[in-house]
User: Fold this.
Amino acid sequence: MQSWRRKSLWLALLASWLLVLLGLFPLLRLSVPTSPWAGAPQGWPRWLDAELLQSFAKPGELLEDGPRPPQALRGGSCNWGACFDTSKCRGGGLKVFVYPAAGPVSETRRRILASVEGSRYHTLSAAEACLLLLLSPDTSTGECDPVPPQWDGGRNHLVLSLHPAPCPRTFQLGQAMVAEASPTVDTFRPGFDVALPLLPEAHPLRGGAPGQLRQHSPRPGVALLALAEDGGRWHVAGTDFSACPWDGRCEQDRGPKQTHPGATLPNATFCLIPGRGPDVLHFLQALQVLTALQEMPLTRVLALRQQTQFLWDAYFSSVEKVIHTTLEVRGIHLMGALVFGSASSLPLSMPLSSDTSSALIIQDRIFGPSAHPSLLWNSPPGAILALPTFSPSPSDFPFYHLQQGSRPLGRFSALIWGGAPGQPPLKLIQAVAGSQHCAQILVLWSSEKPPPTRWPKTAVPLTVIDGHRKVSDRFFPYSAISTDAILSLDAHSSLSTSEVDFAFVVWQSFPERMVGFLTWSHFWDEARGGWGYTAKRTNEFSMVLTSAAFYHRYYHTLFTHALPKALRTLADEAPTCVDVLMNFLVASVTKLPPIKVPYGMWHQEARPPPLEPGGPGLRQEPQPAAQNCINQMAAGFGHMPLVSSRLRLDPVLFKDPVSVLRKKYRSLEKP
Amino acid sequence: MCASVKYNIRGPALIPRMKTKHRIYYITLFSIVLLGLIATGMFQFWPHSIESSSDWSVQKRSIRDVPVVRLPADSPVPERGDLSCRMHTCFDVYRCGFNPKNKIKVYIYSLKKYVDDAGVPVSSTISQEYNELLTAVADSDYYTEDIARACLFIPSIDLLNQNALRVKETAQALAQLSRWDRGTNHLLFNMLPGGPPDYNTALDVPRDRALLAGGGFSTWTYRQGYDVSIPVYSPLSAEVDLPEKGPGPRRYFLLSSQMALHPEYREELAALQARHGEAVLVLDKCTNLSEGIPAARKRCHKHQVFDYPQVLQEATFCVVPRGARLGQAVLSDVLWAGCIPVIIADSYILPFSEVLDWKRASVAVPEEKMSDVYSILQSIPQRQIEEMQRQKWGSVSNPLFLPLIPPQSQGFTAIVLTYDRVESLFRVITEVSKVPSLSKLLVVWNNQNKNPPDDSLWPKIRVPLKVVRTAENKLSNRFFPYDEIETEAVLAIDDDIIMLTSDELQFGYEVWREFPDRLVGYPGRLHLWDHEMSKWKYESEWTNEVSMVLTGAAFYHKYFNYLYTYKMPGDIKNWVDAHMNCEDIAMNFLVANVTGKAVIKVTPRKKFKCPECTAIDGLSLDQTHMVERSECINKFASVFGTMPLKVVEHRADPVLYKDDFPEKLKSFPNIGSL
Assistant:
């Protein structure tokens, strides 16, 4: 018994020792330094004396690295600030002077000149210009220009060449910025020069073809990769191949070879245009591009596809866009800083100054922090349509609420355009003021006669603004507009409080679009070979009337400061055109149709006929002159931006067979 | 990528406590340097999957045992840095392919001690920071011990501080590295470049083609798309803990904490302080500190003593002017403290500027505008200041962000999930096949015990009909991205939804075309907050609002099938399959979360009850159903960490719906009949 006990005790002791030894051994092996440099080195060592290592900088060295005088300007390299005199832009913003061409002018060049002259940047005086634009000659017949008169070593100059210059320049570019296609790394000065896309000769001046992408995701079965070959041909590789399509050695392994003439682009998800160079194909092979593309997550493929379209539409599709982008890229430093908090200090401090653009840039703080975040450049609608002068904060714009996780501010300003003789629109004012979302009512008085002295008492403030009797006044960015949302109205519009409430709630879900009650639709008139539009009730629509519509106040800024003046003049001359113009503008930004909400038919019987003949009528068929306006607008925009919709947004229980008491917007149900 | 970028900006705040914080810092630093290289275009095709690192036993050695290498005075010196280097000219990409999983592999040269002919060391063997950095690299998945497989080479010669090394001899040491080859594919790290009196903005050590990750690059020395700009490490972050401070007004508007400031700058700042009083605070070195207090931790204004870096948390904006060098360690401190840096250093290449959008977290003011800095900052609206303080990088990025209306000709694919209700299924097929835009019909046969009916028995329809048999009876099968789906639009429809008219379905498709990134469906539902129970509740009554549509009849983009199957967060998919319920709620959560948008309910409310299943539609069952659905909402909200569903008050109807207008002229007359 006892011996058994002792035996088991020993056994247990032995076993525990064994365990201890086994457990300790690896630890011992670690703690005992193995012979330092024997065998292959195993990773980066853990130094036993790591605690004793010194810091890379002596105490205080990081804090006091010896003051140094401000750096003097260095020759050779230029950057913004060093080679650009921003003081010239004070008080004038980005004002661009274009040198007139000497001698005969090519068509492209003439159109570029026209584009800059029609833009918001243009000035006729070289002295007041902040930027002087020199167009490189673009035809072989064109003579190379001599040194321009205000050259000054190229300071504040932008030398723009859309096509490779046919003759060598006769003077040094010096401090001038260079905007050209395919610049070389050796001469390109990042942050100063501008790289342009290489445009075909026949690139349209304005508008341009919309992107060809018709769906978000690639079609199933479409080729993964097309490789550009010499002579403008494409080699299309199928989705199923694993061999290297560019390697001559596996020629026999490649899939069905398709070549396309240069005119048509290949039907493939990715297009690869290899550079010129003897080793380029091996280089691509080493990168294993194909494998990487095959493994690319769907989400990324979708994002890339969409981004190509956005970039094309926003910056590449016309000569005008390329030029404006160039100016915007360079102007960005200026414009971003110019009007900080512009929302309140835009032209508006003085009612309707005749020269609004000069008022726009009153602030003398030029060249401060740039406020044009990459978000504005890289997401729809792009930097040309997102004016940095409007606000430095993306959440003030109608387009970025999703990315910013923000919502448009919670109330609206009603802007009533009036001036017709007679009583103030009492019923309208009361209906609008009755809305819980109404912040204020603004009456834009545009008549020769003085406005009535007595206005109805309302729960919200009512302000009368003196207008300039031009139709385009109604889309001026008045400082009094304090909310994101504007309810644009005519004095003779008729709306109920319920309608206003519901439409506003819908607008909050779609702050970048117009939300309206009455609609027009456009169509292609084969007989006349042009566009037409109708106010007839149809199954679809593409415009909402601004005599009763919600939209974001940003569109006032865009209308006033970004539209070519010619188009605004056109609208002033033919008042119905102003509706068309506003709808064109918003559609060219959103690429989407406006939104229609229900509108009681009883309004139309109750409404007096429009007092101004040809004024923005509700159910009037547009006059022939007005029909012409849509074609002029389409020409001015370079394309037809309007998009049709076949739906109307109604309250969830609209006309459902359920007790009216359950319904929030019950008065919309009136027959 | 974004996550780690953001991480590093806030980086210093996340590097508390000695060892581990150093490691996190250097791991992040190194991954961002790699990301920077990736952003240069060279590696952008590389799949960035993580390869599990092989186990290796760590050596423990002493620094003193490091072998000594004697450099003859006439040993070769590399060329000066080649300013024209770009990835495609100076980088050998062939070394980087052809290894398993295409992972970039990094080799670290073993540590040596370099001495000149006289036996005088060329530099200190290795600094604490560089050792941490190399350890971090060696612990990462990029590390390889096999020099032949390596794509990038990191010398163990410490170049972090140029003042701590002898320029020519260090260059000689670099040149004798076994794979130096003019520095090709070698990555050097430097934080303090240049030295008195010129203070070059890049490391003066001749390095030929080697890539340089440097602090304090200027536009003159930075090789765009080749070098990487890194922040100057601040040791303070390892010593001090700062409490988190939210956005909002702070005591000082503008603060300067730099000790070494050019007198001209200090004068201008002092003038600002004189003009604006309390709002501006300009700090300097303390002159009469008692012994034992580290000067780095205190700042003074006249006789007032402030704790540094804590004082940075009291200011909205902190100026980071250039010193002798462009890169300043104070930038790290300022970011860490959540103060918005005001960078006054012309031509400075901000750290990781290739991947970070500094405009969102800092303000750059030109040196010549320093006197205007106060008014420039004053003109920034409060809202933007808060955005910069939060350094918020987008909350939602809609995967289908491009505004476009897909062509009608594409049509849609109807997917009917069925188990064994063949009769009802056939009726659904017949009804759906009448819809003009239907292009294919897919039946997902979810019954493993029973074969689908014989081919001859199926209704004859004008579009292709395919039956997919599943391996398991799971609800998720309805959302699988089947290869058979060729259209972008998918109509998910239950095998008992026979009451939808052809007009209603066609109209639903038209609505989807106008909202291709949303769920467009027929029966709408709502989630509500139950104040008594403090949790979410499912609502199917006649309400004025909707936040979900049932996928028993809904159109959506087929991309969401991919998302549902492969990217559904947490265990939601398993939960749905285990409970055999709520797959539709899960889909609503998923789409709302990724797009940030609400659903679109189409057409008026109908009775969605199948005639065959009245028997199970009893009241008690109904209640259990509601409880279960509510549970799903609460479960999903907790997995998503938020309530992504958006409530709206509208639905979509045809333009002329219920208008006083001749029915026969309406495009979709047959809508809303019960």
